[in-house]
Design brief:
The structure holds 3 protein chains of 3 kinds. Chain A is mostly helical. Chain A has 12 helices and 2 strands, in the order ααααβαβααααααα. In chain A, strands 1-2 form a two-stranded antiparallel sheet. The N and C termini of chain A lie far apart (about 65 Å). Chain B is mostly helical. Chain B contains 14 helices and no strands. The longest helix of chain B has about 35 residues. The N terminus and C terminus of chain B are likely disordered. By secondary structure, chain C is an alpha/beta fold. In chain C, a hairpin with a 2-residue loop joins strand 1 and strand 2. In chain C, the strands form 6 sheets. In chain C, strands 6-9-10-3-11-12 form a 6-stranded mixed beta sheet, sandwiched between helices. The C terminus of chain C is likely disordered. The chains are: A mainly alpha, B mainly alpha, C alpha/beta.
Chain lengths: ~300, ~375, ~525
């Protein structure tokens, strides 16, 4: 019992750390999907940003510069996705898959070109933990929630901000409308293409924050394929949270918790493989309509062609 | 007067030319982009591509390596193509392949006492487990309305972790290396000839699978239904066909093909299932299928191109300074471009749209 | 009224508008004039070019030739934004509303009131309420659009335009989805609007509609203006002649056929749900005998689609029974019904009747692909399918009669003939024809009518479901009227317009006699 209470703090801290990249990417996916563009490329967006961040930090010695290069890479790849899906009317699922493969192949290629070999990059200066005075002194919770890196605090901030933007601003109304009935947005004199570019671009920037946190917050180096399916768990969070920022963040925390306990669970009791499956299984269950169906934006996946 | 051979033949040729339009443009553009990348690394694109070609088909050993890499992609490409013909996206090839692979890794050892007789039994089992696994997203779609894109994506990871669990726990070999026990050589798919290196008869199993898929889709009652459901669920339902059943079958058949591919990899190449096991064969199968316009013949050609690129890249890395990962970049760019209707329109004009039919799912709906 | 309108200032003029799509000229040198406070009717058959014209006006298409003047000033309308800025609003045939959003959100979309960086929802609700009250539209700004009826949704569309201060409102086939009562309400609203100084272009293919509400009527045929008449000085016959281009035989010659008397298709207390889950057909009972055509009349969306699909076995039946030649076939499904001799011409040939990307020979075998000689032991024989298809395509005058042609490459009329070729060549005992002539050219309409009557002469039982009252009246031996999913009355083919109209409005015999 003693042990159990003593473990809560570290487990919560680990939960927050594991959930942070998921929350970022899920919020990113939210912007894209609410605008009607499926983004199964979150995995690739995170991966390329994680890599770009390390490259930036490596050559400048500054984590902030690394965040900048991560954002730039995430934005670039997101714009490629938008260019394909919106302008060239390519299939969104295919484009997203291609983005994932491009990030995987591209980072592998650039690892060799830039660092001379694949595998793991040199260590870089990441974002150190910054304890918030007073708040971090709260027993158990303080250390878990308020002794984290700056990116984690940015994530706390972004959840309500994204909620406000999506549900309380004209931009959000247009975004949601674009994902539901693009024809209506068009006839209202708003450019569907522009809204979708915004949506996808924001998804790139937010996923980039997640990628940067992976390689410069959680770790301090880039490892090939280090996202390890986190982009898909973020997608799962988005669906599990029913395309709502609060819901998505909640789901991401749940999945982060599942990851946190894989490090502590007794292998004999539950094999970790089953815990690692959990996010994916839960999403399937939600999609199948058990416990209230998850309904996606209506126009998602369809290219919009002006007559 | 319409019975004459002339119009039919012309239509076929025009159709074939049209079908090649999107893939050819995607391949050309990706090679141009690749050339720019090679230039940026300070190498000569021409010599890099020459080395690439050399490494793909330059000698029997290279050719054998190409066939080796091509084989699983034919299976996963077919897994995508069959579903696509029925109007469904099967992004689950990755997981389906793992399920087949772990089946083979398990039965290959436990039926090993049968010697070569085990091979067909094991492969048949892979087809069955792949079929069952593939039917899960089908059932979820048919009875619960869960979109197959998301469920197959999610099931990839469920399948991979499940296979890893089996490989790590009940089937784990003794010793420090994670993975299953090794299958006896007698129960493995034999290699074709010494000159071709590790290329094995699995390639011919893949070709055979493509022929079966062709006959199934275009020469059987079931295939007629599957294609009708794929092209127009409304009309298929109107004609009394069962949408749900055909949906389940399409994804299950896809699963059985990818599962067979996993089995062939284990029995033909690796002899066991390591942890981690091969990655991205399922995802690259999507590119193969789309490049091949979801036709079995096209899938074979697409898989040969993908396999050849991966194989040739090894020679390219050896002969020049260009990292072999360039091949993966080229494959990704091809996939990125192969459905870009508007891009092709920009290049060849409005007629492009007539040839776009195989690149998009018309009845695609919300996820 | 007419005089005062003609004196009012011209708010819109379209001059010499021409629009081509490849070899097809959709609009050929079309000109029209709209005055302030006027309701201008734009009348024409399906495919005459009305929709193209208004899409040009709304900036969705760009004309190849011609000019548009708004308030006497030349207007370049590149997109819908330009149109709205010029004060032109449009209510599309298919509403462009966003179901999960509220009425107010839908209305302000694209022109949102702001408070700081956020959307001023209170102001949006207030503005919606104000407009709604001013024109008596009676819409709740906070309601979710998904929960509203079709009639109310249309009013939301009108509000959307009014919120943007439009002075020219274009309504594209606004009554197609409305009940007669809702139509009357709409006309009342339109009168309010023109009284307030708006001008309205009202597009329709229904002859009678414009006589009551329009000031002037411009008739379009084959992409050309063939005449402009004053609503007060014309009649249905003249409009019909202008619209179709010849005297229309409003009656098809129908030979006397003695019904065999034996009931071939019947439904008992049938209840069917729509895709939305609502009960679309409620307790319907009907009988069709050999040698007769039973017509089902009604306004669109009153359960016709669901009724046809349920009888044909392509939609599950919630309650009640269906009998085919005395056998209970309620749960058998489409395939079994086909085998028992039921032919079904579905209302939506594009997505149901034909697989657009299949060749004609495959479409011809769409229901018989699994029977000899097309199939044995699970295999199919495309060669035999081709040969059979070539025969029946020629017999039904499908052009081109090429079995390898893709179905989607044919015109609407030829597609429908291809459907008939498949359905009728199987020697069916019962034919269900749902909207068999919708979107089909006049020549094909006559062909299709002849084919259906021929089936009747051969003693087949025919259930004809159509929105075209004239079609139902001229082909049927008996007519039942469907309203809100129920049969509200049965009349003979000689029933008056008024009689049928009342029934279609849901006012049954009881009220009429009261």
């Amino acid at each position: 019992m003693e042990d159990f209470i003593g473990a809560i703090g570290p487990i919560l801290q680990s939960t927050v750390r594991n959930a942070t990249p998921l929350v970022f990417a899920a919020l990113g996916g939210l912007f894209s999907e609410r605008s009607g563009v499926v983004n199964i490329g979150l995995e690739g967006l995170m991966l390329i940003s994680a890599f770009a961040g390390v490259v930036g930090a490596h050559f400048s010695g500054s984590a902030l510069v690394g965040l900048g290069t991560a954002l730039a890479a995430g934005l670039l790849f997101a714009l490629i996705h938008a260019l394909m899906c919106v302008t060239f009317e390519a299939d969104q699922i295919i484009s997203g898959t291609a983005i994932n493969l491009l990030a995987l192949g591209g980072t592998g290629f650039l690892m060799v070109v830039i660092f001379g070999s694949g595998g793991t990059s040199p260590r870089v200066n990441g974002f150190a933990s910054v304890a918030i005075p007073l708040l971090s002194d709260i027993p158990i919770l303080g250390k878990a929630f308020f002794d984290q890196s700056l990116l984690v605090y940015l994530m706390y901030l972004l959840v309500p901000v994204v909620f406000f933007v999506v549900f309380r601003t004209p931009f959000g109304l247009r975004l949601r409308a674009t994902g539901e009935v693009p024809e209506a947005v068009d006839t209202a004199g708003v450019s569907v293409a522009r809204m979708r570019y915004y949506g996808v671009a924001l998804s790139g920037l937010l996923a980039a924050c997640g990628g940067a946190y992976l390689s410069m917050g959680l770790l301090s180096a880039f490892t090939e394929g280090m996202t390890g399916g986190r982009g898909f768990i973020a997608l799962a969070s988005l669906i599990f949270g029913r395309w709502n920022p609060i819901g998505a963040a909640g789901a991401a925390l749940l999945f982060g918790f599942a990851q946190a306990i894989t490090y502590r669970v007794n292998e004999q009791a539950i094999p970790i493989e089953f815990i690692e499956m959990l996010p994916y299984l839960l999403t399937i269950i939600v999609l199948a309509g058990f416990g209230g169906r998850a309904i996606a934006p209506a126009a998602i996946g369809r290219p919009y062609r002006k007559e | 007067m319409t019975d004459g051979r002339g119009p039919a033949l012309r239509r076929m040729l025009a159709g074939a030319a049209g079908a090649l339009l999107f893939p050819v443009i995607a391949i050309l553009l990706s090679f141009i982009i690749g050339a720019v990348i090679v230039l940026a690394t300070g190498n000569n694109p021409l010599s890099a591509y020459a080395a690439l070609l050399e490494g793909a088909v330059g000698d029997p050993f290279a050719l054998g390596r190409t066939l080796l890499y091509t084989t699983p992609l034919i299976f996963t490409g077919l897994a995508v193509a069959v579903a696509f013909r029925v109007g469904l996206f099967n992004i689950g090839g990755e997981g389906q392949l793992y399920i087949g692979a772990v089946t083979a890794a398990w039965l290959g050892v436990s039926l090993g006492f049968l010697g070569p007789v085990a091979i067909p039994l094991v492969l048949a089992s892979c087809i069955i487990t792949g079929f069952l696994w593939g039917s899960i997203p089908g059932v979820l779609k048919a009875y619960f309305g869960a979109h197959e894109v998301i469920t197959t994506i999610m099931l990839n990871y469920v399948g991979i972790y499940f296979a890893y669990f089996l490989a790590q726990h009940p089937l784990r070999q003794k010793g420090p290396i994670p993975g299953t026990e090794t299958i006896d050589f007698a129960s493995r798919i034999p290699t074709i000839s010494f000159a071709l290196g590790r290329a094995n008869y699995g390639f011919f199993i893949a070709i055979f699978a493509a022929v079966v898929v062709y006959l199934l889709l275009w020469r059987t009652r079931r295939g007629f239904e599957l294609r009708a459901v794929g092209l127009s669920p409304g009309a298929a339902n109107y004609a009394g066909m069962r949408i749900g059943l055909n949906t389940i079958l399409a994804l299950a058949i896809g699963g059985s093909l990818a599962g067979l591919g996993g089995g062939v990899e284990v029995l033909g190449v690796y002899g066991n299932m390591d942890v981690p096991f091969v990655a991205n064969l399922g995802f690259n199968g999507i590119g193969v299928a789309l490049l091949g316009r979801n036709h079995p013949v096209g899938v074979i050609l697409g898989a040969l191109l993908f396999g050849g690129l991966s194989s040739g890249a090894q020679e390219m890395q050896f002969a020049t300074d260009v990292p072999l990962q360039l091949a993966n970049v080229l494959l990704a760019v091809i996939l990125l471009l192969v459905t870009a209707t508007k891009l092709v329109e920009l290049i060849v004009g409005k007629r492009a749209r007539d040839f776009a039919a195989g690149t998009h799912l018309e009845n695609e709906r919300g996820l | 009224m007419a005089e005062s309108v003609a004196e009012a200032p011209v708010v819109l003029e379209m001059r010499g508008i021409t629009k081509r799509f490849g070899p097809v000229t959709a609009n050929d040198d079309i000109s029209l004039v709209l005055h302030r406070g006027e309701i201008l009717g734009l009348l024409g058959e399906n495919g005459a070019g009305k929709s193209t014209l208004v899409k040009i006006l709304y900036g969705l298409y760009h004309p190849d030739e011609g000019e548009i003047f708004v308030d006497g000033e030349r207007a370049e309308i590149r997109d819908s934004k330009d149109a709205v800025e010029r004060g032109i609003g449009m209510v599309h045939q298919h509403f462009t509303l966003i179901p999960p959003l509220t009425v107010a959100e839908n209305i302000v979309l694209g022109a949102e009131p702001r408070r700081g960086v956020s959307l001023d929802m209170d102001e949006a609700v207030r503005a919606t309420e104000e407009l709604s009250e001013r024109y008596g539209l009676n819409v709740d700004p906070r309601a979710r659009v998904a929960d509203l009826s079709v009639g109310v949704r249309q009013r939301v569309e009108i509000l959307k335009a009014l919120y943007r201060n439009v002075r020219i409102l274009v309504l594209d086939e606004p009554t197609a989805v409305l009940t007669p009562q809702e139509t009357e309400d709409l006309f009342a609203v339109l009168k309010e609007l023109v009284a307030d100084g708006l001008s309205i272009i009202f597009i329709t293919h229904k002859l009678g509609e414009l006589l009551g509400v329009g000031d002037e009527i411009t008739i379009i045929r084959d992409g050309r203006v063939v005449g402009t008449v004053k609503a007060s000085e014309t009649n249905e016959r003249e409009l019909a002649r202008l619209m179709v281009g010849r005297e229309v035989l409003l009656r098809v010659e129908k030979e006397e056929v003695k019904t065999s008397g034996e009931v071939r298709l019947s439904a008992e207390n049938l209840t069917v749900r729509a895709d939305t889950g609502e009960e679309a057909v409620v307790g319907v009972s009907l009988e069709v005998r050999g040698g007769e055509v039973l017509g089902v009349a009604g306004v669109d969306g009153n359960g016709q689609t669901e009724l046809a699909e349920a009888l044909a076995g392509t939609r599950p039946i919630e309650g009640g029974k269906v009998y085919l030649d005395g056998e209970d076939v309620t749960r058998l499904g489409a395939a079994a019904l086909q085998e028992r001799g039921l032919a079904y011409v579905p209302e939506d040939r594009a997505t149901k009747g034909l697989v657009q990307d299949f060749a004609l020979y495959e479409n011809n075998a769409l229901k018989t692909y699994d029977e000899p000689p097309f199939s044995r032991f699970g295999w199919i024989f495309p060669k035999i399918m081709r040969r059979r298809a070539a025969e029946s395509l020629r017999a039904y005058d499908v052009r081109p009669a090429d079995p390898d042609a893709r179905a989607g490459s044919l015109s609407g009329g030829n597609q429908q003939k291809a459907v008939l070729a498949r359905e009728l060549s199987g020697e069916p005992g019962v034919v269900i024809a749902a909207q068999p002539t919708r979107g089909v050219d006049v020549g094909a309409i006559e062909f299709i009518h002849r084919q259906l009557l021929e089936q009747r002469s051969e003693g087949k039982a025919i259930l004809l479901i159509s929105l075209e009252l004239e079609e139902v009246r001229s082909l049927s031996d008996r007519i039942v009227v469907l309203y809100a999913g129920r049969i509200v009355g049965e009349v003979g083919p000689d029933a008056t317009d008024e009689e049928l109209g009342l029934l279609m409005a849901g006012r049954g015999a009881d009220e009429k006699s009261a």
